[in-house]
Amino acid sequence: MRTRPVALLLSLVATLALAGCGGSGASGDGGGSGRETGTLTVLAAASLTETFTTLAKDFEAAHPGVQVRLAFDSSATLAEQVTQGAPADVLATADERTMQTVVAAGGTAGDPRLFATNHLQMVVPRDNPADLKAFSDLDKPGVKYVVCVDSAPCGKLAATVLKATGITAKPVSEEVDVKAVLNKVELGEADAGLVYATDAVAGGAKVKPIDIPTSNENLNSYPITALKDAKKPALARDWVDLVTGPKGQQVLADAGFGKP
Amino acid sequence: MTARGPALGRAPARLLVPAGVGVAFLGVPLVALLARTPWSDFLTRLTEPAVLDALRLSMVTSLAAVAVVTAVGIPLAWALARVEFPGRTVVRAFVIVPLVLPPVVGGVALLSAFGRRGVVGAPLYDAFGVSLPFTTPAVVVAHAFVSLPFFVLAVEGALRATDREYDVVAATLGASRWTTFRRVSLPLAGPGLLAGLVLAWARALGEFGATITFAGNYPGTTRTMPNAIYVELQNDQEAALVLSVILMLVSVAVLALLRERWFDQAMRGPVRG
Question: Is B109 helix (H, G, I), strand (E, B) or coil?
Answer without folding.
Answer: helix
